[in-house]
Design a protein that fits this description.
- By secondary structure, the chain is an alpha/beta fold.
- It has a single domain, classed as Class I glutamine amidotransferase (GATase) domain (Rossmann fold, 3-Layer(aba) Sandwich).
- A seven-stranded mixed beta sheet has the order 2-1-3-4-12-11-10. The chain has a three-stranded mixed beta sheet with strand order 5-6-9.
- Bound molecules: glutamine.
- The site of glutamine (GLN) has 12 residues, from helix 4.
Length: 204
């Protein structure tokens, strides 16, 4: 049984836990460093990245999360979680993990009221899709979302908006989405992540 943790300091962790349960995984909520022991994968949810970063520092999670990410633990950051994974956050240096070779702009699309939804073409999801899901666009919900402004050499771009703005990427054991798959019924991204967990990417 794969052990998936969901960082449960602030934000939409309950929704990620519910989606994982629908997929037959029994996830655990991570609040303290001891909750990280024995995990096969970790999801960092959306919410407010500065708050999550500060709480992770207070609870002494930051260093341990960095170490696990560097050791190859599969990690997926959604929205604020993506910002926490990024090596560079434009215009600021709040506490974050800096694991993934991407530069992120927070609130790249404006205020909360400018949140939007978009149907994205994401060929990588075909790997986990059923016959009828193949080629189907992914309905993505953006809530005061960040965008990816730069990707490093080893980073695979998974999805972009029509105007070319990058909104999902992967670098080995690290997955980042600017949007919130846990708020939709479509479980393909969660299955994609479980696939990463199960594919032996984890050198930890
Ligand atoms: N704007 C938020 C932040 O950067 C992220 C929003 C979200 O996770 N939905 O903290």
């Amino acid at each position: 049984m794969r052990r998936i943790g969901v960082l449960a300091l602030q934000g939409s962790f309950i929704e990620h836990i519910a989606t994982l349960k629908r997929l037959g995984v029994e996830p655990s909520a991570v609040k303290l460093p001891k909750d990280l022991v024995g995990l096969d994968g970790l999801i960092i949810p959306g919410g407010e990245s500065t708050t999550i970063g500060k709480l992770a520092t207070t609870y002494k999670l930051i260093e341990e999360l960095k170490r696990l990410g560097e050791d190859g633990l599969p990690m997926w950051g959604t929205c604020a979680g993506m910002t926490l994974l990024a090596r560079e956050i434009e215009g600021a240096t709040p506490p974050h993990l800096g694991l993934m070779d991407i530069a992120v702009e927070r609130n790249a699309f404006g205020w909360q009221v400018e949140s939007f939804e978009a149907d994205l073409v994401i060929p990588a999801l075909d790997r986990v899709g059923s016959e009828e899901e193949k080629g189907k666009r992914f309905h993505a919900i953006f809530i005061r979302a960040p965008s990816i402004k730069r990707v490093g050499e080893g980073v695979e771009v998974l999805a972009a908006l029509d105007e070319g703005i990058i909104v999902a990427a992967r670098q080995g054991n690290l997955l980042a989405t600017a949007f919130h798959p846990e708020l939709t019924e479509d479980t393909r991204f969660h299955r994609y992540f479980l696939n990463m967990v199960g594919s032996g990417q984890n050198a930890a």
